Amino acid sequence: MNIDLFEKYESNVRGYIRSFPTIFDRAENATIWDVDGKAYIDFFGGAGSLNYGHNHPVVNEALIAYIKRNGITNALDKATVAKHDFLLALQEIILRPRGLGYKVQFVGPTGTNGVETALKLARKKMQRTTVVSFTNAYHGHTLGALAVTGNEMYHDSYYGVPLNVSKMPFDNYFDHDMDSVDMLRQYFEDGSSGFDTPAAVIVESIQGEGGVNVASAEWLRKLSQLCGEKEIMLILDEIQVGNGRTGDFFSFERAGITPDIVTLSKSIGTGLPMSIVLMRDDVDVWSPGEHTGTFRGNSHAFVAGTAMLEHYWRTDTFSSEIRAKGKKVEARFRAIRERHPDYFSDVRGLGMIWGIESSVTDFCSLVSREAFERGLLMETAGSEGQVLKFLAPLVIREDEMDKGLDLLDAAADAAVAKAPTELGQEEGAE
Fold first, then answer.
1. Domain interval for residue 401
2. What CATH number is associated with residue 95?
3. pLDDT digits (tens, 9 = 90+) for 130-156
4. pTM for the complete prediction?
5. End position of a domain, from candidates 312, 347, 367
6. DSSP states of 94-136
7. Are residues 253 and 333 located together in one domain of the fold?
8. pLDDT tens for residues 27-73?
C-alpha cells in the first residue's frame, strides 16, 4: 500500500494523517498496528471517542449478534429495540442515580450536531439570540458551533459566523487574580454595559482542544448560580471530557451542578457515530419534526453504547480505576517537567485527561513526531499546539500505559537533544 494515494485523492483538509503518516490496519484495546506490523500505543484515543478502547470484546460480541439477527440499522427516529435498550440503560444506570431528570434528543451523528441543536434549542426556549462562550473553547466546525469556538485558526470572515456570540475569559485565563464570572455578572447587572442578557452560556468544564484548561469546581458553581439567577440556559459541552474521562461519568459532577442542557457524543457510542442532547423537561419546547436529521438513529451505536453502560457503570469500580491511572500519568508528566524545566512549563488535568505545556514554540510538535517514530500516538492541543495531550482509552492496560509513558520519556529527551538544531534553540539551554 502507498500512503501517497491519500495525498493524491483526499482533500487538503485531512489533518491527523499528517501527524501520524502511516497506514493503520488493526487495533486492540490501546494498541494499533500499521500495515507493516509496527505497533503503536494509543495516547490519542480517537480524540476522546475511544474511551472503551479499540474493538472491545463486549462491544464486538453485541454488534455481531445484532447484525447476525438482521437488527435494523437506521430507523431515523422510529422506535426500535436498540434505541429502547439504550434509553433504558442511560436512564437507569447514569441519569436517575445522579438525580438528573433529563429527556434525551438524538441528533445528527457528530458532536457539532449536538452543539448546534443545543444552541438552537436554548434560543428557542428563551426567545433571545445571544450566546456567551469562552476563550479557548472548542465546540465544533459547523457554522453555529464554530461561532462559539475560540481558536482563530478555524475562523474566516467569509463564514459569517461571529454574530450573536460574546466571548468571555475562561477560568484562570488571566495570570493575575480576576474572576471572569464576577466580570460577567457586572456586565449583566450594569444597565449601561451594552451587554444583552443571553439565551445561554456554553462551556466545557475542561477545555481539551483548548489546551487541557481545567475550570475549578468553585468557578463552575458560580457560573451555574449566575445563570440560574439571570434565567440563562447553562449548556455543558461534555463531548470530549464526559463519558467517564474525568473519573465521574459527567465532568461537571465534581461541581455538584445541574446544567439545563448537556451535549454528549464521541464515546457515548463507543466511537460509532452518535450524538445526543440532554435537557430538562421544561426545556423541551420542540414541535414534532422541528429539528431533524437522517442519521439520528444509528442502531449499531445504540447497541455498543448500551453494552458499555451495562459493563462498566453499574458500580463505582471503573471510576476508581480511572482515577488511579490518572494519578500515575500525572506523576510521570510532572517528572518530565522537572527533568526539562526549560522546555516544559506546566502540567494540568484531571482523571484521564492530562496536558504538559511548553513555552518553547513548536517544541510539543517535535516531541509528538519523536513519539510517533518510537511507536506512540500523541496529539498536541492549545491555540499554538503548545500542549501535549494525554487522551488514552480509559481501559488501557497497565502494561500498555507504562510502555507508552516510557516512549514519551524517550521522545521528550530526544526532542530536547534535537531542539537546538530543529527549533533554533540555544545549545545547552538546560
1. 4-55+316-422
2. 3.40.640.10
3. 999 999 999 998 888 988 988 777 777
4. 0.96
5. 312
6. IIGGGT--EEEEE-SSSHHHHHHHHHHHHHHHHT---EEEETT
7. no
8. 999 999 999 999 999 999 999 999 999 999 999 999 999 999 999 99
